[in-house]
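ok so for the tutorial part 2 we go from a plain amino acid sequence to predicted structure tokens. step 1 is just haveing the sequence, like this:
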Amino acid sequence: MTPIAPHMSAFLRERLPLQRGASEHTCDSYAYAFQLLVQFASARLQLTPSALSLEQLDAPLIMEFLHSLETERHNSPRTRNARLVAIKSFVHFLEYRVPALLEHSRCILAIPAKKTEIRLVHYLTVEEMQSLLNVPDLQRRDGIRDRAMLHLCFAAGLRVSELVSLPLKALDFYPTPSVRVLGKGRKERTLPLWKETAADMRNWLAVRGTTPARELFVNVHGLPMTRSGFEYILQKHVKTAAQACASLHKKRVSPHVVRHNPAYLLMPSHFAKAGGALA
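step 2 — the prediction. this is what the tokens look like for a chain of 279 residues:
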């Protein structure tokens, strides 16, 4: 029997962060998937986690685990598939470390992902987005920051994680305004900025002040803006904007919705209506 502990430790401590350069979020997600799997296997086999072996984590047990995620934890098929991806990644890792278990690995890798529904992508109209951008008070430092954050998130289609981790040096105004983003999967991209977006960024840099934080956006204490902080700011301004734009009452505005708006504006009819950018 092959102990699972040393191989799982090597996968989580070396393979993911060092060899594959996985993000902290990915490492945490995979670690949680294995925490659930080990808890399930330990209870099912009546063994302590340290006593589990690789041979015991076979395809039938993995299938039971995936089924329990949906029936007992009430996870969605999408979450179930994410846990399966983590398990398969570990199994691929084992193929080279424990060749004697290749047939064992093949059976697990053959477990299919479950079909999921394709979610409808929501977006804001030009009028709704403009109403949201008009809310921050530009006479206040935090209002200048909020408008700059919202405008950049909207214009560049950034994820919240990309927005709050954006370093000061990511901005470049010459020869043309642009922002360099390190996104999901360590993929880097450079995005041009609309004239109005670049103006908002300059306004924020003028009042940002000196702070040890390397991140572009900081809170009132000079610390990097957090995901929850941005989401709070977004919902606060959406609530105010809804008073002037009634259609916002009917929409659930999330950062995911905001970042999909560039695709909507690039549709010829809407882009022409917006004049190529928001005022």
